[in-house]
Structures are given as structure tokens and as C-alpha cells.
Amino acid sequence: MNYFEQHQQEYLEGLKTFLRIPSISTLSEHKPDIRRAAEFVRGELERAGLQNSELIEGDGNPLVYAEWLGAPGKPTLLLYGHYDVQPPDPLDEWVSPPFEPEVRNNNIYARGSADDKGQTYILVKAVEGLLKQHGKLPINVKFLVEGEEEVGGEHIEAYVASKPERIKADAAVICDTEMFGPELPTICVGLRGMVYGELHVQGANHDLHSGVYGGAAPNPLMAMAEILCALKGPDGRIRIPGFYDRVQPPSEKERQAWARLPFDEQEYKEKEVGASDLVGEPDVPLFERLWARPTLEVHGIRGGFIGEGAKTVIPARAVAKISTRLVADQNPAEATEQIRAAVKAACPKGVTAEFKPIHSAPPSLVNPNNRYIEAAAEAMKQVFGKETVYIRSGGSIPIVGLFDAHLGIPSVMMGFGLPDDNLHAPNEKLHLPNFYRGIEAVAKYLEILGEPV
Ligand code: BES
Ligand code: MN
Ligand code: MN
Fold first, then answer.
1. DSSP state of 87
2. CA 302 to each of CA 67, 209, 318, 335: distance values in angstroms, whole numbers, following the listed order
3. Which of 201, 253, 278, 378 has its CA 20 to 30 A from that of 188?
4. In this structure, is residue 275 part of a structural domain?
């Protein structure tokens, strides 16, 4: 048994402690838990043997920083993760409570297990293991762990944009993505960006009897439906003028690599998605729709009467939460303006409609031809015993595009989640063998990068 295998039980217990903290960034009543989670990460980094650990305060949730810079002349990695999580609802669909981690079938179930506490912990334990075994690291590392990734990552963005000398590095390592399949080591080289906001529709200045006024009064819920249908057609194509102007098609090489990925569309449809049919632009292959095309989704609509029974009312207002996912080379500022204009143009008479942005993130696309990504692919291959595949992902991690834009460094996205980990959903889990192999793969990665070139 190697050092890492000997310490698995300890890693699991540590992770459980982390997972018990309900650090939900979007709900303000959890502010104290956010701070507890930040303190937990800082304490772990300090006990792991890192130096100058601290909470960086600013507008928003604290960033956790720590470093080990004892390998002059060797590369420096910026190791990124997030300690905040999504809300756990609907609660009654969890088999075990979201903040009481439970191991079943070699998986640990809890909110944040895969996204992203488990994966952040992988980075911490890899570095700790090397420091405890050798008293030093083969390269230099700087940890930067944020607490508002799930709500747009504004604090870290301001911090990285100010380009502090202390986060200067040769590459960023992000452990917050998924493997393509259960035993398939994977590097993610592209993420979608996003614009998230609320669509407010106002009709009459008060609620109205739907019989007395139906036929004359504007209905903001109907107007909402009309506006939404004007933004995206039944063919999955976004109808916002100019939206596709900057969209870069994937290279032929990438398309071919995606077509070679081991994949069963039937199983994806029935088991992973659990729907009777897949949707989207009919002439665009699935991975391209997910990874290289923009989309628009509605997350919730509020308005009118939703209680038990029937109430005949024409409500005065309606609100929808919507988001678009962006791909290279779209940018959030321009997309926001395009959405605003399209909403105005689609607004029927008798109501007003306004798009109010909440947060946004740029898309990111990484060139994989550099030693930092190649070494990561090699490390994962050695630990998982299979060739590493390169994919993109449809999700967003706001800071990734900004590491490139502000620091000019590539992001190495080594992810250890699985497609059925239920991110953002009930029964989120992390496959424990991936947790343990992830720790070994990251340690191996640091060792490879420390070898003389
Ligand atoms: N870790 C995810 C993003 C992700 C998931 C990347 C799966 C690759 C594969 C991240 O925590 C996330 O959920 N991001 C949000 C970003 C948003 C709230 C700004 C997202 O994608 O919805
Ligand atoms: Mn995440
Ligand atoms: Mn997430």
C-alpha cells in the first residue's frame, strides 16, 4: 500500500466534515456557514504544511489563499476550487439528508460531494501527501479557493483582474469538471459562459377578475410565454438577432475526436437524462449542441395563482429566471445587450418587459498543446491506466476565462466527477474510487512537472 492508499480512511472522514457545512452561497442566511467552510479550507491548508494561509476579504465571500514556494526554478501552479454549494432542494427527494454525508455503494452522497468540495479536497490532500512524505513539493503551488462560484464568482473576478503579484503562476489547475465516462481519465478544454437574469413583465397596475376583464386586459403570463418563444424557437435555435455572429465552430480535428468518444445515445437519453426524446438544433450533433453552441433556458416562472384549486385572475405581473450559455467567441456584455433588445422587440402591447441581469461569465477555450495539459493527461493516464480523452463541457466556471484574459495562463481542467453525479440535483454524489485516484493523479501531476525538462 502506498502512502495515499494508507490514508484513505482519513481523507474520507475529513471530506465528511467539510460536507457537513451547508455553505450555500445563494441564500444569505447561510453566510455563517460560508465563513465556516472558508475557515475549514484554510485550516486544512495550514495543517497540510502550506504557508501564508489566509482569508482574503473583499466584497463578497472570502477567498482562501495559501502557498508553498520552496522550489525555485520550478513551475508554479495556481490550484483552484470552490467551497460554496448549490441549494439542496427539493429536500424530499434525497435518500439521505444533503448535509449528512453517507457512503452507499462506494459513493459518498451529499450536496457538494462532487461540486466542488470533494474535488477541492482532492487538491488539498494531494499536496498534503507530498509534503508529509517528502517534506517538500516538486514544484511551487498557490491555492485560491473561492466561495461564490455558484453565484457568478464576482469577488474572485475582481481579485484576479487586479492581478496581484502573489497569484502569478505558469498555469491554473481546476478540479471542478467531469470525466466523460466511469473509467475514462478526462481533461476538459472548453466551458460555456453565461448570462443569467430575470425577465420582468408588468401588465395592469393591479390583479383583475379574468371574466370581467378577459378579452380586454393584457395578461403578463401570456406575454411572458410569447416573449420566451420569441427568444428560442421549437427547433432549439436562439432567435435573438446577432446571437450566433461570433460563434466559432469546432475544428474538424475536435469534431472527429468527439465522434470517437465511447457513447451510447440511447442510454444517455433514457438513463442519464431520463426523457423520452432529446431536443435541440436538429442538424447539429449532440456534443456540438452541448459544448459548442449557445443555448437559452428558463429556470422558473413566478406569477399569478399557483395554490390549490382554481382562482380566476389576470395577474398584474410575472417574473421568469432565464439564462443563456455562451460559447467562444461570444462575450457576456454583448449578449446581454442582444437579449435586452430582443425582449423589447418581442414585448406585446399592454405590458412592459425588462431583462435584469444577475450575473455572467465568459466562455473559455483552452489550447491543449502545452506541457501543463500534456503532463496532466500523462498523470491521469498513469493512475487510471487508460489513455486520457479531451472533451469540452457545457457548464460554466466564471473564473476560467478570466485566468486566460487577466493572467494569460492556461487552465488545466482535471475533473474527477462522473456524468451521473447529480450536480445541482438531489442525491449528489462522488464516486469514492475517483476521489482517491484523483488525489493520486494530482500528486503524480506535480511530480511529473517537477522532473527536469
Ligand atoms: N462545476 C460546475 C460547472 C461544471 C459542471 C463544469 C460540470 C463542467 C462539468 C460549476 O460549479 C457550476 O455549476 N457552474 C455554474 C456557473 C454559474 C452559476 C455561473 C453553472 O454552470 O451553472
Ligand atoms: Mn463547480
Ligand atoms: Mn456547480
1. -
2. 46, 19, 6, 24
3. 278
4. no
Cβ neighbours of residue 181 closer than 8 Å, sequence gap 6 or more:
262, 418, 419
Q: Which three cell numbers stand for residue 432?
A: 469514492
Cβ atoms < 10 Å from Cβ of 196? 20
The CATH number assigned to the domain holding 429 equals 3.40.630.10
Mark whether 19 and 128 lie in a shared domain: yes
Instruction: Give the angle 204-205-207 at the CA atoms, nearest 5°.
Output: 75
Do 52 and 175 share a domain, yes or no? yes
Query: Residue 283: is the preceding peptide bond cis (ω within 30°)?
Result: no
Q: How far is the CA of 304 from the centre of ligand 3 (A)?
A: 30
Among all bound ligands, the one having the nearest atom to the CA of 421 is 1
Q: In this predicted structure, what is the pLDDT of residue 163?
A: 85
Domain boundary among 360, 379, 406: 360
Q: How many helices (H) and strands (E) does the chain have?
A: 14, 18
Using CB atoms within 10 A of its CB, is residue 32 exposed (0-12), middle (13-18) or buried (19+)?
exposed
Q: Taking the alpha carbons of 276, 282, 287, 293 in that order, is the dihedral positive or negative?
A: negative
Query: Of the candidates 140, 119, 152, 104, which has an alpha carbon nearest to the alpha carbon of residue 41?
Result: 119
- CA–centroid distance, 281 to ligand 2, in Å, is 27
Q: What is the dihedral of CA 262, 265, 268, 274, to 10 degrees?
A: -170
pLDDT at 453 over 90: no
Q: Tally Cβ neighbours within 10 Å of residue 346.
A: 17
Q: What is the pLDDT of residues 91-115, one digit of tens each?
A: 999 999 999 999 999 999 999 999 9
User: Which atom of ligand 1 is nearest the CA belonging to 323?
Assistant: 22
Q: Which domain holds residue 78?
A: 3-191+363-450
Q: How much of the chain exceeds pLDDT 70, in percent?
A: 100
Residue 312 domain-assigned (yes or no): yes
C-alpha cell at 416: 474527477
Report phi then psi at 12, rounded to 5.
Answer: -65, -45
Residue 238 belongs to domain with CATH number? 3.30.70.360
Total structural domains within the chain: 2
Q: Residue with the nearest Cα to atom 19 of ligand 1?
A: 152
Question: Ligand 1: residues whose CB is within 6 Å?
Answer: 115-116, 149-150, 152, 176-178, 191, 194, 359, 361, 393, 395-398, 423
* Domain end point (choices 306, 334, 360): 360
Top mutation candidate among 150, 175, 179, 430 for ligand 1, by most atoms within 8 Å of CB = 150
